[in-house]
Amino acid sequence: MRKFLSLLLVCALWLAHGDVIHAQDPRDPYAYRFVPIGSKFDNPLYLTHAGDGSGRLFVVEQAGQIWIMYEDGRTLDQPFLDINALLTDDTFRGGYTERGLLSLAFHPQYAQNGAFFVYYFDRDGHTVLARYRVSADDPNRADPNSGVILLRIPQPFADHNGGGMQFGPDGYLYLGVGDGGGTQGDPEGNAQNLSLLLGKILRLDVNDLSADRYAIPPDNPFVNTPNARAEIWAYGLRNPWRISFDRETGDLYIADVGWAGAEEVNFVPRGSHGGMNFGWNIMEGNNRLSDKPLGADYVPPFAVYDHTQGCSVTGGYVYRGGQLQALRGLYFYGDYCNGNVWIAERDRNGTWQTRLFRNTRRQISSFGEDQRGELYLIDYKGYVLRLQRA
């Protein structure tokens, strides 16, 4: 009887304190939570930092404003930059749209040169890459008259118009460009067409800040290929909405939003010479859609999920912060439609393991990281959340 009562006591303690016992696993998702910080924003799409040691975070709103927020949640009263006058009216009509101000990237030497880059959809049906400078008088305001358009890409449809934008460890700007949209699965075959920039990752040299155009890195893979655009670094993508580099290894992660049945994340190790084909619209995830040949350049995704688990993948980051040591080296990604967040890890043999981290019940439009490598989640409904211990 005494043993039975002891067992009952243990069970009662387990039920009463199960969350504590459950959290002893340092990678247990319930040991962590995404916590809202700061003000509510209007349709935020992205968050990044300037790399200048200021502790500032820059929040991108779809309607064309960039706001400065500090890590304690304090947000400045005036936007860093406001370009809503340059954007298509679709952005302001309410309802869902993939257009607007889509991404932001600060030059690696921003602290010295004050240059940054924005990626948006203009009034004339183009995706635009433009360079701006910070104001000479106020580090918290950009010079609105400093804008220089470096690239304009005509778009055939109203979706898949942009994508992620990141500087790589090589100092070049990597730009994700969607296939141009359409409801029939890239009906014009743009993603496999090397004479077009649609459905690609571009690699551009934007380091001459006096130029009104970008340069082509001489080692881009299609520089010497007849009829191919030299800007192209990789192709066969549908909607590479968010891309990121692992700040420690230099590996590249590309989350590509799917069409009828699958979402995928692609991996490119540092040192790659580019030229890879990620398969769209011959492949979607691991599903073959066409009998057209893929060729030797095809690279399959490392992570795939079907539309019973979500409907629009949002790429994230490899966690490299210092606050959550057990999570270092894990790649976080999510789904816009249902708020799922997954983690992925590659072992020494190159085998990937992925698992559901938790459901956030958020509309995940993006992830972000601060200069220290701490991870943020952007909820399209208006919130910025930081990952921290529960």
From TrEMBL:
<feature type="domain" description="Glucose/Sorbosone dehydrogenase">
    <location>
        <begin position="42"/>
        <end position="379"/>
    </location>
</feature>
<dbReference type="Pfam" id="PF07995">
    <property type="entry name" value="GSDH"/>
</dbReference>
<dbReference type="InterPro" id="IPR011042">
    <property type="entry name" value="6-blade_b-propeller_TolB-like"/>
</dbReference>
<dbReference type="InterPro" id="IPR012938">
    <property type="entry name" value="Glc/Sorbosone_DH"/>
</dbReference>
<feature type="signal peptide">
    <location>
        <begin position="1"/>
        <end position="23"/>
    </location>
</feature>
<dbReference type="InterPro" id="IPR011041">
    <property type="entry name" value="Quinoprot_gluc/sorb_DH_b-prop"/>
</dbReference>
<keyword id="KW-0732">Signal</keyword>
<protein>
    <submittedName>
        <fullName>Glucose dehydrogenase</fullName>
    </submittedName>
</protein>
